[in-house]
Design goal:
Blueprint lengths: L55 H7 L8 H8 L9 H17 L21 E2 L11 H4 L23 H4 L5 E5 L8 E11 L2 E6 L10 E5 L10 H4 L3 E2 L15 H17 L10 H12 L8 E5 L6 E11 L2 E6 L9 E4 L5 E2 L3 H5 L2 E2 L31 E5 L7 E9 L4 E6 L8 E6 L5 E2 L3 H5 L16 H8 L22 E6 L2 E14 L2 E6 L9 E5 L5 E2 L3 H5 L23
Parallel strand pairs: 1-5, 3-6, 8-12
Antiparallel strand pairs: 2-3, 3-4, 4-5, 7-8, 7-11, 8-9, 9-10, 13-14, 13-17, 14-15, 15-16, 18-19, 18-22, 19-20, 20-21
Helix pairs in contact: 1-7
GO molecular function: chromatin binding; histone binding
Protein name: MBT domain-containing protein 1
Keywords: Repeat
């Protein structure tokens, strides 16, 4: 684009990811197999999780041997044991207590109990069984147990998978079965208790046979094929072993130690655990169905209308060449096949179905009619807005710059379109800021006059004005202008993000880039983000809506197989958003 193509950044280049990266493996696949196939529907896994009549307890008791813990006797008499409520605070306390005992030599950590990344106790929990080798994303950050509380929960995000039902499927205290981290065999599983969540990541405490053994804490991707429901091993003829099983244990069924430990651990887990407090037997299928629903708006190879990068006031036809989660890479239909294309979210304001430009009244770059067919779009295809909201040419407002997202500029209505859309013209002292763009009146980036002053945000004032003494009332009176009446669409809904919240975000100017970011400021519905690991310069910040589809919970990139760049950084006392904890 001419004057609107401004200050492009050259960060790490995100690469297109094939659509197959979105599909988690099925329950019957080994974790080591990274191929992605859709789980079979209508399988036996549809049996309710809450059914306790699994036949496990009776078959285990027939082979019963003495348990190594005193709690087992109580479990036999009462049929269940008391389990304390788990919270993030108690989990962290248990981990630190275990470290302290280990350093004092009272409890020795078994050799090979965890991988090389966590040999040093001070390193903290490590990530177990990475679902995707594309993203070594939050590993370092999540080793710091004090930093977990900064990670924004999944239900903070309007457009994220499972956002509306996260608390129903992801609960602290749930017990799961997962591949054994020490025994190299696809048949061996262990049991873990979820003690905390950080985005889509789950912190799991691996259960031991001996209550005095070192308590191993690991991170897993919760929305993956890794966590299985309690009873999975029994149903699928897997072997259940405790985390503190001796190093020499194998899955040899003739090994007496193997038989004894397996039977004791199975008795301890299935005899004491609440079989309802676990993940669904259809966990992998549910994850896959949710991801498919999020990417159902458009499909691979579909032709759509997108903003023309060369002239953003018009649209241009493009073909979807890649789909990863709800993110698509499009290539203009008249571009070279070697063109890298552009990345958008399916719910972006810049991507539309065929026929959208014709209905709205926006220009569409000319192309042969044989390449596509117009579709008839109903009124329900467009955002709703108050019918009494007047949009007239020359009405003024404030605008988050669409190409320089760390700036808020003054703008006016240049041309009125249909269904609440209009062409916005940016008027600024900086010629690089100038440009015309299409917006809907309900867009989160159309801001009322005075928004910046109210939230103490620098405003790029109109051409010829002094920013030190600029006043909207005086400016409109002198130039006979009227502010755009946005009272009907303000205030925006409340959100839960705070200064210091950690998340994954897309760089608006380099949309192939996805990396960790920190909320350093909030202004009503807008978040001021800084990308972790990058300099403290304006171009590495951006204002973005709290309801934007371009922000995600931690772990989203790993969940769908999207490339991830940089590493999350923990907050510290030199950051101006840092909130010290009360003693």
């Amino acid at each position: 684009m001419a004057e609107a193509e401004v200050k492009r950044r050259t960060r790490g280049k995100g690469l297109p990811v094939s659509p197959s990266g979105t599909a988690p493996t099925t329950d019957d696949e080994d974790i080591g197999n990274k191929s992605s196939t859709r789980p079979r529907r209508g399988s036996s896994s549809t049996v309710g999780v809450g059914n306790k009549n699994l036949g496990m307890e009776s078959s285990v008791r027939q082979r019963r041997r003495s348990l190594s813990t005193a709690d087992a006797d109580k479990a036999d008499k009462t049929g269940k044991s008391k389990t304390p409520t788990l919270t993030v605070e108690t989990s962290v306390r248990l981990v630190r207590a275990g470290r302290s005992r280990n350093r004092q030599g009272k409890v020795k950590r078994r050799k090979g109990e965890s991988n090389a990344e966590a040999d040093d106790d001070e390193d903290g929990p490590f990530t177990l069984f990475r679902q995707s080798d594309k993203a070594s994303d939050w590993d370092v950050y999540l080793k710091d147990l004090d930093a977990i509380s900064w990670v924004a929960p999944v239900d903070f995000f309007k457009n994220a998978p499972f956002a509306t039902r996260w608390k129903q499927i992801a609960k602290v205290g749930m017990q799961i079965e997962l591949p054994h981290p020490k025994v190299i065999s696809s048949k061996c599983y262990c049991v873990g208790t979820i003690v905390a969540f950080a985005g889509y990541k789950a912190m799991v405490r691996l259960e031991n046979l001996n209550p005095r053994s070192y308590k191993s804490i690991v991170w897993i991707s919760f929305c993956s094929s890794i966590p299985k429901h309690l009873g999975y091993s029994f149903r699928n003829r897997k072997v259940l072993l405790p985390n503190d099983a001796p190093d020499h244990i194998t899955d040899d069924k003739k090994d007496e130690d193997f038989i004894r430990i397996n039977e004791e651990f199975v008795e301890q887990i299935y005899g004491k655990s609440d079989l309802q407090n676990t993940v669904s037997q259809r966990h992998s299928e549910i994850v896959l169905e949710e991801l498919e629903e999020k990417q159902s708006q458009f499909s691979l190879n579909e032709v759509v209308e997108v903003m023309d990068k060369e002239e953003p006031v018009r649209n241009r036809l493009a073909r979807i060449v890649s789909v990863t989660g709800d993110r698509i890479i499009v290539r203009y239909v008249d571009a070279d096949e070697n063109d890298q294309g552009f990345c958008f979210n399916m719910n972006s304001e810049l991507v539309h179905p065929l026929g959208w430009s014709h209905c709205v009244g926006q220009n569409l770059k000319a192309c042969p009619k044989s390449m596509y067919t117009f579709k008839s779009l109903s009124k329900n295809s467009f955002p709703k807005y108050p019918s009494d909201l007047k949009i007239k040419v020359d009405m003024v407002f404030e605008l988050r710059h669409p190409c320089i997202p760390y700036k808020v500029v003054t703008a006016s209505v240049y041309k009125k379109l249909h269904f609440g859309y209009f062409v916005a013209k940016i008027d600024s002292n900086d010629p690089d800021d100038a440009g015309t763009f299409v917006f809907h009146v309900t867009s989160d980036y159309i801001l009322p006059c005075g928004f910046c002053k109210e939230h103490n945000i620098p405003l790029e004032v109109p051409s010829g004005e002094d920013d030190s003494c600029f006043n909207w009332h005086t400016y409109c009176k002198v130039n006979d202008l009227t502010p755009l009446g946005l009272e009907k669409v303000y205030p925006k809904p409340a959100h839960k993000f705070v200064k210091g919240s950690k998340l994954e975000a897309v760089d608006i100017c380099q949309p192939l880039y996805l990396g960790p970011a920190t909320v350093v400021n909030t202004a009503d519905h807008l978040l001021y983000l800084h990308f972790d690991g990058w300099p403290n310069k304006d171009e590495y910040y951006q204002w973005i809506s709290a309801f934007s589809p371009d922000i995600y919970p931690a772990g989203w990139a790993e969940m769908v197989g999207h490339s991830f760049q940089s590493h999350a950084k923990p907050p510290n006392d030199v950051d101006h958003y840092y909130i010290p904890k009360q003693k």
